[in-house]
């Protein structure tokens, strides 16, 4: 599989800006490397007693000029690089989110939201840090080193002396190469232990009720505690390594300065160099030590973010598993569906969720699908929406294999109302007009009337502009379901799938809603999935599912006459209200 | 995402107060590590000495040896040796200092995590009803990690950089009080820059934080609702909305970058300009022979050095903010108390062993609701003799599960009381009560661990032999035998490879091992197919012998052989009696039974 590349195309596309940033940083550092020289000459003039107040003022002004120029140039270079980093972050996030919208149910089932969020948050951030701070720090260090070396040479310092003084600093890469992988290995252990601890916390909080019920809190605390202890010890083992590294790097800098003092001082004593040159040498060394010390961090950050970059590229290269066929057909004119010998198993499941389903959802009919939790009702709905892929030839719409139909055209033609009534944290209006954003107020109101939520919405202070979610109003389960129903109805799609859509609605409201749905959906194909009989007893045909198989089919009346699951459910649900008696 | 709150003014003030309380709370955790912190301060002094003394040593070299024309090399060598020694000490003590701060910081986090988990495991079910588990996990792992940065980064920087600053000032005054006096002019300039930027930086930081949390909230919500986005073919629209938030976060980032670059660079500029200024002032002094050149040299170096610690302290600002927000969140959790007061002292059972309680249960006119306005149970009175098997039937929402939640004391009643052996459950210590009452739910929960540990729930006082015996007793032995590693097979909540029925058998074995005197089976067989149900049913019968047992079920066959069947409707007891009594009555129950009979005859054909 070809890996999608992220970084190189971006950097190439911003080539000019990067070049400008590099130029600004380079000029800034070249100018900065003049400063020890100014002070060195100042010292020599002092030594040779040729110092005058004018020269003093001149030197001071020169230093001030260097200060201003360096700050402006280096500052703008740094700003440019950081800005480019943030832009990379923005573009990559957008790319990721778009990719997420293409991944299917199967991906979402196996990857938690937290896991996917970490791509958007930490991985993107870590790559950004590498390309912004590492870029400017490396550029800084390299350019400063080169220009300082040149300046030292130009000001007449002997090459041997320079080499001697700089040599300890050249050990920095050696240290990095030695410590880098070891530190990374230990920091990976820390990450793994942290992940294990998080997982354990997740598991234990999920099972908290069991823990509390059996009163085994101390054992569970010990279990969690052992993970915490592991994090502690791996953190400390990491610290042993990393703090040695962090202490050694400045030590090399100090050794450089010791050599400068001794060797430079010796040459100054013997007159091989002037005192001014000695002064500028010590200042040069101090100037280049800092950026070179940074290189250690740079290399480590880069390696850390390389892992993130790879993760991102891998994610972006996963191909969505539900794709259009080579030549997709639009959704056919008639929404009559035939299901032939459909068997579907979730990956890794021992038993199929649906088995040998033979079913016809006739054009213009209302078909009911009833069964207990886990009987496979929702699986069927998801297969019809191609959230999951049915076997070839198992589902035909107006004679066409569902797999040959354009996914978007298919989904545009189906209004799906799921049980959970998931709503977004935006206004009620935006939630209802979700699939039809340009819907006018009248359409929104009409849909909400049919869904039996209109009156409730008017009761809110802001009516349809009421915001939902954390910062807004919290709706009850029934209100959420009805809003979600309005969202489905406004679509006026050729096929409507109600997946236990009114399960949290009270009986009176439910019957009103059922009546209005019957009215709106007259002569339109509708599939009602429910575990409550009252929601679908009016259907033209009712299919009874149990453990993934169709066990009964017929109309409400005919099914009540039969003894079986349907009659049992009817009696359980309507017992005492006079509906279920016929079955007894 | 939990904890990503919008930021507004009123809240900010409250947060500020909460944060300072939280930081104070953290100090309690820091206290046991007092010696390490003192050690850190001590080590820091030596660790920074080499870097600080370098300009001074060079000054001595220049003034005493180079400038005065002496040709002797040995003093220079001595100075070099001294400096090397200092550097070695600095290497050693930086290392020790780093170790100490990490030992303290990680130790604090370790304790914090353990305490937080212990605290969470003491909180009542109503707390877990309200909180998302994802949010809690973030608090335990993420927020504690951020807090540790407070110690390992912020504290370290304050000690190290603060001391560096103080020492630089000290050396400057030692070298030349007049020049040092001039340099003091820098302090108000630094303060002015910091004051000018501080408010603005805070604002930009908060702006980008709040835009980031908006972006995260949007992304998290869309990821959870992605099936809807896709089902409604709204990918493009949502990408557009994502891009709005993404761009506004980007804008905030740019503002933050601008502010930060300006801020850091103005310190830089100030530092470099002071070098020029010192050269001018000092140069004139040297010219007038009032000052040795080495002093001027050291001064210039110190002035440049002065800005490094200031920069690194200001860089800790964001970490400090993040840490105080996290500390505040953790503190709020610690302040959450369980809604169930565990003050009871009355023991039940023989010799105070709750597992040997008699098992007489009474509900006295119990009224209960999850919110006071909507009572789920509306005056339930029940008297259950020890050892009886009680079936509870009723439709969804009739209050079956609420009834047994009160017996387990997951919640407290609003009116009336529940008693076991004549003792109000509120008077029984929770540990005792929970050992006395066993519960098997519809969804058995497996922990990651071996079968043995899953049965005995990691309680090593229960021997593996007892676990095996329990498994044989409930008929799980054969199933365990089929697993690759037998009783040592590792299970986990996700993907244990066991079917629903097999998982349920494991949870029955738990009951056998823990031997509660009262047993509740809450729809324990609802998720099972008919063949597994048969197997589980047998296990269930063996388990319930000699125990007061409550069986909640929607299938009549599960409860029909109970000593007494309670039929619940809308939070009240509609009918109660044995199967035959209820059948004779010919009421609701009788109808249910007739249908279930029908189902069983019909099923082979369907």
TrEMBL record, chain A:
Residues 19-304 form the ABC transmembrane type-1 domain. InterPro entries: AAA+_ATPase (IPR003593), ABC1_TM_dom (IPR011527), ABC1_TM_sf (IPR036640), ABC_transporter-like_ATP-bd (IPR003439), P-loop_NTPase (IPR027417), Type_1_exporter (IPR039421). It comes from the Bacteria. Its main location: membrane. The chain crosses the membrane at residues 16-35, 55-81, 130-151, 157-179, 244-263, 269-289. The keyword Acetylation does not apply. It is a multi-pass membrane protein. One of its GO terms (molecular function) is ATP hydrolysis activity. It holds the Pfam family ABC_tran. Keywords: ATP-binding, Cell membrane, Membrane, Nucleotide-binding, Transmembrane, Transmembrane helix, Transport. Coiled coil: none annotated. GO terms for cellular component: plasma membrane. SUPFAM superfamilies: ABC transporter transmembrane region, P-loop containing nucleoside triphosphate hydrolases. It is found in: Cell membrane. Residues 337-572 form the ABC transporter domain. This is ABC transporter. It comes from Paenibacillus herberti.
UniProtKB/TrEMBL annotation, chain B:
It holds the Pfam family ABC_tran. This is ABC transporter. InterPro entries: AAA+_ATPase, ABC1_TM_dom, ABC1_TM_sf, ABC_transporter-like_ATP-bd, ABC_transporter-like_CS, P-loop_NTPase, Type_1_exporter. The chain crosses the membrane at residues 37-57, 77-96, 150-173, 179-201. Its main location: membrane. Keywords: ATP-binding, Cell membrane, Hydrolase, Membrane, Nucleotide-binding, Protease, Thiol protease, Transmembrane, Transmembrane helix, Transport. The lineage of its organism: Bacteria, Bacillati, Bacillota, Bacilli, Bacillales. The keyword Transmembrane applies. It is found in: Cell membrane. It comes from the Bacteria. One of its GO terms (molecular function) is ATP hydrolysis activity. It is a multi-pass membrane protein. One of its GO terms (cellular component) is plasma membrane. It comes from Paenibacillus herberti. Gene3D superfamilies: ABC transporter type 1, transmembrane domain (1.20.1560.10), P-loop containing nucleotide triphosphate hydrolases (3.40.50.300). Residues 361-595 form the ABC transporter domain. Residues 38-322 form the ABC transmembrane type-1 domain. Signal peptide: none annotated.
């Amino acid at each position: 599989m070809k890996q999608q590349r992220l970084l190189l195309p971006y950097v190439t596309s911003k080539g000019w800006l990067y070049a400008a940033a590099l130029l600004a940083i380079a000029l800034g550092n070249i100018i900065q490397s003049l400063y020890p020289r100014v002070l060195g000459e100042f010292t020599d003039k002092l030594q040779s007693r040729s110092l005058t107040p004018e020269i003093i003022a001149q030197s001071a002004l020169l230093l001030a000029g260097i200060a201003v120029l360096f700050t402006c140039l280096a500052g703008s270079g740094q700003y440019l690089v950081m800005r480019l980093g943030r832009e990379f972050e923005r573009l990559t996030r957008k790319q990721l989110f778009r990719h997420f919208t293409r991944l299917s149910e199967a991906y979402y089932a196996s990857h938690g939201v937290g896991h996917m969020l970490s791509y958007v948050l930490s991985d993107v951030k870590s790559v950004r840090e590498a390309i912004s701070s590492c870029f400017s720090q490396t550029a800084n260090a390299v350019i400063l080193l080169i220009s300082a070396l040149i300046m030292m040479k130009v000001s007449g310092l002997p090459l041997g002396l320079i080499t001697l003084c700089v040599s300890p600093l050249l050990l920095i890469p050696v240290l990095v190469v030695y410590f880098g992988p070891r530190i990374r290995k230990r920091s990976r252990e820390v990450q793994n232990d942290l992940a294990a601890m998080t997982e354990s916390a997740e598991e234990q909080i999920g099972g908290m009720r069991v823990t509390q019920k059996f009163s085994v809190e101390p054992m569970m605390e010990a279990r969690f505690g052992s993970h915490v202890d592991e994090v502690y010890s791996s953190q400390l083992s990491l610290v042993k390594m990393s703090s040695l590294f962090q202490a050694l790097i400045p030590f090399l800098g100090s050794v450089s300065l010791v050599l400068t003092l001794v060797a430079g001082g010796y040459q100054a004593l013997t007159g091989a160099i002037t005192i001014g040159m000695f002064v500028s040498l010590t200042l040069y060394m101090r100037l280049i030590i800092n950026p070179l010390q940074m290189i250690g961090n740079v290399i480590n950050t880069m390696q850390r973010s390389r892992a993130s970059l790879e993760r991102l590229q891998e994610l972006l290269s996963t191909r969505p598993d539900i794709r259009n066929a080579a030549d997709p057909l639009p959704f056919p004119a008639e929404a009559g569906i035939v299901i032939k010998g459909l068997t579907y198993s979730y990956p890794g499941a021992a038993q199929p969720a649906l088995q040998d389903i033979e079913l016809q959802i006739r054009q213009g009919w209302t078909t009911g699908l009833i069964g207990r939790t886990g009987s496979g009702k929702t699986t069927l709905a998801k297969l019809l929406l191609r959230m999951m892929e049915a076997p070839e030839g198992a589902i035909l719409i107006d004679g066409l294999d569902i797999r040959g139909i354009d996914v978007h055209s298919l989904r545009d033609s189906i209004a799906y109302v799921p049980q959970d009534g998931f709503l977004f944290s935006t206004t009620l209006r935006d939630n209802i007009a979700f699939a039809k954003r340009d819907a006018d107020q009248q359409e929104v109101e009409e849909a909400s009337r049919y869904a039996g939520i209109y009156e409730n919405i008017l009761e809110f202070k802001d009516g349809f502009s009421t915001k939902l979610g954390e910062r807004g109003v919290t709706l009850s389960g029934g209100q959420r379901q009805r809003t979600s129903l309005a969202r489905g109805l406004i679509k006026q799609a050729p096929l409507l799938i109600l997946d236990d859509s009114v399960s949290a609605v009270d009986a009176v409201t439910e019957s009103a809603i059922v009546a209005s749905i019957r009215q709106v959906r007259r002569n339109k194909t509708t599939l009602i999935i429910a575990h409550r009989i009252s929601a679908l007893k009016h259907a033209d045909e009712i299919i009874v599912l149990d453990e993934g198989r169709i066990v009964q089919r017929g109309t409400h009346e005919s099914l009540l006459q039969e003894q079986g699951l349907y009659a049992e459910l009817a009696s359980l649900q309507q017992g005492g209200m006079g509906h279920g008696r016929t079955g007894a | 995402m939990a904890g990503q709150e919008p930021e507004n003014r009123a809240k900010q003030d409250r947060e500020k107060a909460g944060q300072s309380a939280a930081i104070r709370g953290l100090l309690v955790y820091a206290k046991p590590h007092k010696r390490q912190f003192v050690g850190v301060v001590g080590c820091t002094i030596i660790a920074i000495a080499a870097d600080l003394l370098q300009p001074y040593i060079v000054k001595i070299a220049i003034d005493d040896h180079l400038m005065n024309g002496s040709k002797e090399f040995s003093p220079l060598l001595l100075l070099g040796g001294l400096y090397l020694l200092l550097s070695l000490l600095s290497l050693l003590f930086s290392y020790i200092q780093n170790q100490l701060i990490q030992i303290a910081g990680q130790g604090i986090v370790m304790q914090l995590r353990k305490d937080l988990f212990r605290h969470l495991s003491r909180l009542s079910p109503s707390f877990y009803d309200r909180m998302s588990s994802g949010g809690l996990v973030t608090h335990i792992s993420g927020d504690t990690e951020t807090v540790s940065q407070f110690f390992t980064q912020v504290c370290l920087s304050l000690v190290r950089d603060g001391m560096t600053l103080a020492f630089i000032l000290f050396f400057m005054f030692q070298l030349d009080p007049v020049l040092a006096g001039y340099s003091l002019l820098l302090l108000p300039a630094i303060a002015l820059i910091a004051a000018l930027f501080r408010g603005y930086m805070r604002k930009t930081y908060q702006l980008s934080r709040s835009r980031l949390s908006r972006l995260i909230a949007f992304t998290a919500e869309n990821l959870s609702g992605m099936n809807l986005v896709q089902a409604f073919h709204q990918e493009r629209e949502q990408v557009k909305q994502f891009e709005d938030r993404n761009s506004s976060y980007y804008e905030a980032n740019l503002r933050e970058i601008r502010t930060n670059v300006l801020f850091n660079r103005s310190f830089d500029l100030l530092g470099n300009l002071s070098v020029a200024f010192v050269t001018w002032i000092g140069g004139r002094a040297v010219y007038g022979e009032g000052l040795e050149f080495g002093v001027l040299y050291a001064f210039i170096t110190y002035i440049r050095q002065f800005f490094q610690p200031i920069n690194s302290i200001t860089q800790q600002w964001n970490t400090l903010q993040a840490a105080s927000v996290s500390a505040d969140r953790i503190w709020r959790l610690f302040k959450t108390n369980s809604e169930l007061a565990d003050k009871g002292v009355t023991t039940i059972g023989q010799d105070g062993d709750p597992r040997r309680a008699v098992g007489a249960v009474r509900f006295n006119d119990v009224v209960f609701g999850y919110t006071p306005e909507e009572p789920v149970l509306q005056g339930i009175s029940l008297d259950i003799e020890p050892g009886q098997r009680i079936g509870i039937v009723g439709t969804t929402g009739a209050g079956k599960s609420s009834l047994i939640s009160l017996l387990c004391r997951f919640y407290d009643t609003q009116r009336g009381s529940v008693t076991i052996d004549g003792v109000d459950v509120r008077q029984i210590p929770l540990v005792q009560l929970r050992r006395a009452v066993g519960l098997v739910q519809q969804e058995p929960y497996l922990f990651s661990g071996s079968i043995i540990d899953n049965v005995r729930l990691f309680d090593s006082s229960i021997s593996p032999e007892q676990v095996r015996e329990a498994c044989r007793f409930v008929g799980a032995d054969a199933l365990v035998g089929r697993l690759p590693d037998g009783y040592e097979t590792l299970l986990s909540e996700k993907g244990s490879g066991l079917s629903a029925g097999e998982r349920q058998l494991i949870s029955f074995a738990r009951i056998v091992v823990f031997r509660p005197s009262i047993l509740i089976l809450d729809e324990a067989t609802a998720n099972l197919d008919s063949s597994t149900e048969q197997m589980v049913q047998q296990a269930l019968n063996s388990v319930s012998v000699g125990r007061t047992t409550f069986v909640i079920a929607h299938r009549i066959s599960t409860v029909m052989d109970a000593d007494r069947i309670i039929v619940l409707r809308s939070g009240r007891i509609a009918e109660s009696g044995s199967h035959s009594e209820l059948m004779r009555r010919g009421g609701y129950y009788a109808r249910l039974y007739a249908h279930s009979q029908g189902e069983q005859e019909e099923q082979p054909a369907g």
